[in-house]
């Protein structure tokens, strides 16, 4: 039985962020993830985790100016100083929250940008982030994201992410395989998870195409969860979906599998 972590950015939106920890624990979750903790003091989040016996399994590095459409800055030449500040900020939060892995978003390639220069910036920034994170026993994740939801996003395919991982060559760099994005971009999920499992540091799920509960849509999740058990996957699965009817009302798929 895989371990499921509630994604508190998408789930339990019925209550404000700091109240979602209690709601997730009451619903039976032992782990939680979220995109960005930075609007709240780390100590406030740590208190919620502790009071409700929860583990924080993942969050993202600062993504640049999200409201202006930025989705990470790691592949943007010229933003290295800001990127490095973000690495330190994220590690500072991770140490207080006890978070073992951080997702580093690549970013959207600007129109007309030199793709080779973006690639070089991405590799150099990843090497820096991995080195800093390794000092604290933290792993760094890169996640291929589908081009429908994020047009122009630098990293879209599983094979490309693993090629980047090999090029960077850091032991603490892993791929975050989000089955929702992978199904939209390429499919063949079982073969790919089987092939790359030792280098997958985190998995996320949602129904395709609507990104609702995993028991909605075209992906056979019971089959994939059984496969992960058979393969001995002992990591977390982040429930990164938008509940269609209400978070608790939609949780039947966990018990029902
Ligand atoms: O899949 C996603 O969208 C997230 O995992 C993420 O980190 C970026 O939005
Ligand atoms: Mg994801």
TrEMBL record:
The active site is at 143 (proton donor/acceptor), 240 (proton donor/acceptor). The keyword Isomerase applies. Keywords: Isomerase, Pyruvate. InterPro entries: HPT_OtnI_isomerases (IPR053398), Hydroxypyruvate_isomerase (IPR017643), HyI-like (IPR026040), Sugar_Epim/Isomerase (IPR050417), Xyl_isomerase-like_sf (IPR036237), Xyl_isomerase-like_TIM-brl (IPR013022). One of its GO terms (biological process) is glyoxylate metabolic process. GO terms for molecular function: hydroxypyruvate isomerase activity. Residues 21-254 form the Xylose isomerase-like TIM barrel domain. NCBIfam families: OH-pyruv-isom, OxoTetrIsom. Belongs to the hyi family. This is Hydroxypyruvate isomerase.
